[in-house]
Write a structure and sequence with these properties.
- By secondary structure, this protein is of the alpha/beta class.
- It folds into 2 domains: 2-126, Rossmann fold; 141-224, Winged helix-like DNA-binding domain superfamily/Winged helix DNA-binding domain (Arc Repressor Mutant, subunit A), CATH 1.10.10.
- 53% of the residues lie in helices and 13% in strands.
- Strand 3, helix 3 and strand 4 (77-82) form a beta-alpha-beta unit.
- It is globular.
């Protein structure tokens, strides 16, 4: 059962989300609230699997609240619903550790799929946001080309861990390496590709099929079995 908290400033939007999720047999609504404080309190007390919230709340925005939620409950993933689709917003959301980015109201019918994808360790980005990210990454460096054989096996595994939401410590332990060696590997990838941070590299790799999210999920299932 996937336990979900909903935080949306508009009563009608909360009703809409509840109605969309009510018919899903594997979902349970743990709580519903109208502000970011409710999302934070839920992460502290209920520790739901997923928090769905408006990107722009009256008291806080999505990229500011994401690290707070992670500190309170490292296993809780955050999906944001944004009324607009701007490059800077998508960048901030992903850098903050948000696992799902959907656009109101274009993507509501995909919310259930997004929840399941994020619950099993995936990163869910709406198609329009993917197009923005792809254009942004192309603009970062028109000469950047990441080929499948450009990343070593270790580098692949590091970015698989990042997609799964693991900390540097967790990834290093899984790969039997020091945190310093892990960060050196990340810096090497930055130099190889010309991209500037983990988010850019990981999203580019996902969008271009260099990292297979299906295999990442399979790894997660094998770990848990």
């Amino acid at each position: 059962m996937i336990r979900i908290t909903i935080a949306s400033k508009h009563k009608d939007d909360r009703k809409t989300i509840n109605a969309l999720l009510a018919g899903q047999g594997d979902f349970k609504i743990a709580s519903t609230g109208a502000d970011g404080f409710h999302a934070v309190r839920s992460s502290m007390t209920l520790k739901p699997d997923i928090i769905i919230m408006d990107y722009d709340m009256e008291d806080v925005n999505g990229h500011d609240i994401a690290p707070i939620i992670k500190r309170n409950s490292s296993s809780t993933a955050l999906i944001v619903l944004c009324p607009y689709n701007k490059c800077g917003v998508v960048d901030k959301a992903l850098k903050a550790g948000i696992s799902g980015f959907l656009v109101w109201k274009n993507d509501l019918e995909k919310l259930a799929s997004a929840i399941r994808s994020v619950f099993y360790g995936g990163l869910y980005i709406s198609e329009s946001a993917k197009n923005i990210l792809s254009a942004r990454l192309s603009a970062v460096n028109a000469e950047v080309h990441i080929h499948r054989d450009l990343l070593t096996v270790t580098e692949h595994n590091i970015f698989n861990g990042i997609i799964l939401g693991q900390s540097d410590k967790e990834i290093a332990e899984d790969l039997n390496m020091s945190i310093g060696a892990l960060r050196n590997c990340v810096n090497k990838v930055k130099k190889k590709t010309g991209l500037h941070n983990r988010t850019q590299i990981t999203v580019y790799a996902l969008l271009n099929g260099i990292i297979d999210i299906g295999k990442v999920k399979e790894t997660l299932f094998n770990k848990d079995s």
